[in-house]
Every structure is written in structure tokens, then in C-alpha cells.
Amino acid sequence: MFNHTVRGSRSPVRDRAGERESTTAVRLDGVTHEYGASGGRLRSSDERTVTALRDVSIEVPMGTTVGLEGPSGSGKSTVLHAVAGLLVPTAGRVELRGTDIAALSDAERTRVRRHHIGIVFQRFHLLPSLSARANVALPLVQSGLPRSDRRERATNLLHDVGLGDRSTHRPGELSGGERQRVAIARALATDPDVIVADEPTGELDTATGTAVLELLTDIGRDRAVVVASHDEATLDVADRVITLCDGRVDDVR
Ligand code: ADP
Ligand code: MG
């Protein structure tokens, strides 16, 4: 169904293929997170704090897809946000290729996120007024690439996800599955090492979801993918599945 050339369109942004050996892409080490804790300090006695993660340690080697499962509220999205540098955990290390991003300044962490992480959300988060191509090109605005190169890369990525003929369509003119493929193309725009996907098939019917999963599987071959899902089909594409329960790692299979 897809042109399996996602890897083939490897980056005009930067060619890091040689660096992508069998190293650890992501390592969470003893990560605890309390929402509502002030100044990053643990205040377990404070009723307003919610302990979302408790001493979570996870390793994701390059070239693998790790699935996160667990009931609603078990901490899946919080893990993904920590991996993506969208939050700084109250305690523990979040290493991206050996660098503890939790210890970086906000500006440095934002830079790491923009260059090295691709994020796919359940509800796509596309800008409705922009074409599919402009949505995909958006993360490249700060890359220093000339506009014509950004457009070309976005066009190629849309082709790779099977939407070569839809590049001028706006999100409202696309189906749910097509929107998610645009969102995946956008996540790949900066050629990131790591993709995090939060319930990427949650809004899609089974057949459409399967097509999105094929794409994620393909992407995971030479990156690291962390995908949270309730859905068995999604977890089936993972090399390893981690079960979270009440903020703790309950099982690894
Ligand atoms: P999941 O993705 O597995 O459903 P989450 O990581 O979203 O779980 O949530 C874990 C826990 O943290 C839940 O108890 C949830 O209510 C809480 N939580 C999530 N986001 C916030 C937030 N921004 N502020 C306070 N509590 C939150
Ligand atoms: Mg969630």
C-alpha cells in the first residue's frame, strides 16, 4: 500500500545514517513524575500532586519499536512526553543517545526536541488552514533549509506515505487515516532518531489503522519508535511491549 521508501528519502537535512548503529536511542532511568509538584521537588504529602510515574526505567535501542500499554491513567502519555522532552520529570534521567535531556536548559531541550524527535498524536494536530505539504514542511522552517528544499522534502515525504497526489489538500479534505499519514510525514520531516506516537490509531477504523501501523513499522527499522496504545494490533508491531500500571512498569514482554 505504501511506497516503502521512507528510509530512502533520508535527509537533505543531515545524513546521520552512519551514526545509527545498534546503540541505545532512549533510556529512561528511575523516572518519577509528579504533576503539580512545585519547583520540581517531590511533595508527596500535597494532595494536589498526582504521581504519574514511579521509578520507571525503559531502554529503546535504535531500530526497535517499543509499545506501551496499560489502563487509562497508567502513565503512558507521561512517558511519551518525558521522552519527547515535553516535560521534565521530577526525578530520574531521560537520555537521548546518551544525553540527559532532563538536565538541559529549556532552550536546549526545545532544540533537541525540534531536531531529534518526531511526535504523532492521536488527534493528528494538523493546522487546518495549511495544505498537507505546508503542514509537513512546518518543522523545517527553523532548519535553515531554503524554502524550495523544504517544499521538496515535504513533497517526497508525502509521496513516501502514499499521499503524493494530496499535497495541496487541506486536512479537512482528507480522511482520518490520510490525516494521520500527513502527521507521520510531518514527524519525519527533520529526520529524527526517535518517534513517539500516542495512540496513533485511536481515531481510526481497523483497516485504516493497519495501514498507519505498516508505516510505523517501516519507520521503526532504523529509528527508535515508542508507541502507546490500547490496541492489540498496534502492540503487535512492537518488538517489545511494556505494561504500565499505576505509573510503574508492571511487565515487559
Ligand atoms: P495514560 O496516557 O496512560 O492514560 P497519563 O500519562 O495521561 O496516562 O496520566 C497519568 C496520570 O497523570 C493520571 O492519573 C492523570 O490523571 C495524571 N495527569 C496527566 N496529565 C496531567 C496533568 N497535566 N496534570 C495533572 N495530572 C495529570
Ligand atoms: Mg494517554
UniProtKB/TrEMBL annotation:
GO terms for cellular component: plasma membrane. Residues 12-22 have a biased composition (Basic and acidic residues). GO terms for molecular function: ATP binding; ATP hydrolysis activity; transmembrane transporter activity. The keyword Membrane does not apply. InterPro entries: AAA+_ATPase (IPR003593), ABC_transporter-like_ATP-bd (IPR003439), ABC_transporter-like_CS (IPR017871), ABC_transpr_LolD-like (IPR015854), MacB-like_ATP-bd (IPR017911), P-loop_NTPase (IPR027417). Residues 26-252 form the ABC transporter domain. Gene3D superfamilies: P-loop containing nucleotide triphosphate hydrolases. Residues 1-23 are annotated as: Disordered. Keywords: ATP-binding, Nucleotide-binding, Transport. PANTHER family: ABC TRANSPORTER RELATED (PTHR24220:SF685), IMPORT ATP-BINDING PROTEIN (PTHR24220). This is ABC transporter ATP-binding protein. It comes from Natrinema salsiterrestre. The lineage of its organism: Archaea, Methanobacteriati, Methanobacteriota, Stenosarchaea group, Halobacteria.
